[in-house]
Design a protein that fits this description.
Layout lengths: L12 H8 L3 E5 L5 E13 L17 H4 L5 E6 L3 E7 L7 E10 L21 H8 L16 E4 L8 E4 L13 E4 L14
Antiparallel strand pairs: 1-2, 1-6, 2-5, 2-8, 3-4, 4-5, 7-8
The protein binds a DNA duplex (12 and 12 nucleotides) through strand 3, strand 4 and helix 3.
DNA sequence: GTCCGGATCACT
DNA sequence: GTGATCCGGACA
């Protein structure tokens, strides 16, 4: 299993976004168990993009990691109850990241009880759900993506998987950029791509 | 200090 | 469409 190194992330977010599809997100839980999920949905955000927290270089303490060097996590809290986890991309000093929107868990995490009627492959279908089930919160903000921090990305198992490309979810500006990528047809995608979108 | 909006989700 | 729920940023 190859851990993607920091240099792998040193490319524009709109390159890393699709490149992450088919790779594996790995997380070591507090009890030591390692949970893995196939990355099936991402979005890209950059400093030149009005939907980005770092648009126009608006750096604040909470957004520091977004402007930092590639290969680190940028985790923020929103809507009073959800965390969202990004992978910082490109170069130091430039706000750029890929939002991890959905993974397909390869196994049910220990201790997680499947709610009646819910499907295991959709436990992490959505950025908030992904963070909840993997135990990702702001304590990981700015952390390097290595096994030492408990959050990292491994290469594969898919290479050049079939992609669907759509506008991003939940934004009001920058909607013209098709910067959301999904593993085409995968059940863990949070919102299926519609034809013509 | 107050005020407000938000890269969500589950439910109706 | 709506509510839950709270942090960060803007302004004073």
């Amino acid at each position: 299993m190859t851990v993607l190194p920091p240099a792998w992330y040193a490319r524009p977010a709109e390159v890393i976004g699709p490149a992450l599809i088919g790779q594996t997100l790995a997380r070591r839980l507090p009890n030591g168990e390692i949970v893995r999920g196939l990355i099936v949905e991402t979005e890209a955000y950059t400093q030149d993009d009005p939907a980005c927290h770092g648009y126009g270089g608006r750096i604040t303490p909470a957004r520091q990691a977004l402007f930092g060097p590639p290969g680190h996590a940028y985790v923020y809290f929103t809507y009073g109850m959800h965390h969202c986890c990004n992978v910082v991309t490109d170069r130091d000093g430039f706000a750029s990241a890929a939002l991890l929107r959905a993974v397909a868990l390869t196994a049910l995490p220990p201790g997680v009880v499947l709610p009646a009627g819910s499907k295991p492959e959709r436990l992490a279908a959505g950025p908030g759900k992904l963070c909840r089930v993997l135990g990702i919160d702001r304590s990981l903000n700015g952390a390097p993506l290595t096994p030492a921090t408990g959050l990292w990305v491994e290469a594969g198992p898919l290479s050049a998987p079939p992609l669907a490309q759509t506008p991003r979810i939940g934004i009001t500006r920058g909607t013209e950029f098709l910067w959301r990528w999904c593993l085409a047809g995968h059940p863990a995608v949070s919102r299926p791509a519609r034809p013509g979108l």
